[in-house]
Specification:
Structural class: alpha+beta
Helix content: 25-40%
Oligomer: single chain
Distance between the termini: 25 Å
Strand order of the largest sheet: 1-8-9-10-6-7-2
Number of helices: 11
Order of helices and strands: EHHEHEEEHEEHHHEHEEHHH
Number of domains: 1
Largest sheet: 7 strands, antiparallel
Strand content: 15-25%
């Protein structure tokens, strides 16, 4: 496998846009060589900070069970070499990992999340719009589940430039959720830069604000080669019975230096530099890149020049 897997910064996606497109349901979940690493980290987090990585309203059990069953059906059919069911257990991979399937499971969303690299977020239409009503979220990209849980969609995005309450984009997202078809799931990708290779990357709003205001942001003082590129592949699928929407998030995390060894490395470097250069002040602050954008962009353009 040539890494990086997904490169939305190459010009195929535009930062701070919705950018949804349909996808083949066969590609709903990504199974690759990172599965065991992700599951091991999920095990660690559920042991260490269970209340931070799983939250659910009491009225979501049936919807969680529907998600679990839909995902189980998909995994067993799509990846028979990775998943096998025997009675009330699912065997995952080839290292003896087992996940028990119980009829009285109090957290079915958590259970199925322990079989896949993706995080799972359940959204429900309520009187005030779509709300985040359940989530198994081990790998947040600089946000806190506790601050977003059981809040409306526009409030969830209130810190994202151009996406907060009352914006045109917030209205568009609400209509997309309202009109999403069971038979037509959609996906999008986005990117960010971070200072380490940690999958579990939560930040409260106060910490985000402090980092954005600091000289250089979270990447201050780092050599460009030490920076990591974090890509999210997100999917939205409406559940047929509950009508809730399942939001899956798969994280791909690579040192920015992998661009140098990639067959399309110069083009990727050129694309990421162009996207960095196009970010406005509030967007730079949101991504924690204030004060370091020019240095990163210059390094990328040097990499791009190698292929010219």
């Amino acid at each position: 496998m040539v890494r990086p897997v997904h490169t939305p910064y190459d010009g195929s996606a535009t930062p701070f846009t919705i950018g949804l497109k349909p996808f083949d349901l066969r590609d709903w979940i990504e199974i690759d060589g990172e599965l065991e690493r992700c599951l091991t980290e999920k095990d660690r987090l559920f042991d260490a900070v269970p209340d931070r990585v799983f939250m659910a309203r009491a009225d979501t059990i049936e919807a969680q069970r529907e998600v679990r069953n839909e995902l189980l059906r998909h995994l067993l059919q799509r990846f028979p070499g990775t998943y096998r069911r025997a009675a009330d257990e699912v065997f995952v991979g080839d290292r003896g990992r087992r996940v028990q399937i119980r009829a009285d499971d109090p957290a079915p969303l958590k259970t199925v999340s322990l079989m896949i690299a993706e995080d799972l977020v359940l959204m429900r239409k309520c009187d005030d719009g779509w709300r985040l009503v359940a989530a198994s979220l081990c790998f947040p990209s600089s946000w806190s589940l506790a601050e977003k849980f059981d809040r409306p969609l526009d409030a969830i995005h209130d810190t994202v430039p151009g996406f907060g309450p009352g914006t045109r984009t917030a209205g568009m997202i609400g209509r997309i959720f309202d009109n999403l078809k069971v038979e037509l799931p959609v996906e999008r990708r986005n990117w960010s830069l971070q200072e380490n290779g940690e999958l579990h990357h939560p930040r409260s709003k106060d910490l985000r604000d402090a980092g954005a205001e600091a000289d250089g942001g979270f990447l201050a003082g780092m050599a460009p080669t030490d920076v990591f590129v974090r890509v999210e592949r997100q999917t939205l699928r409406k559940m047929p019975a509950s009508g809730d929407i399942l939001f899956t998030i798969r994280i791909h995390l690579d040192p920015i230096s992998v661009i140098e060894g990639h067959p399309d490395g110069p083009a990727l470097a050129r694309g990421l530099a162009a996207q960095l250069d196009a970010l406005e002040a509030d967007q730079l602050a949101y991504k924690g890149l204030t004060g370091v954008r020019d240095r990163l962009s210059a390094w990328l353009r040097e990499r791009a020049a190698i292929g010219e």
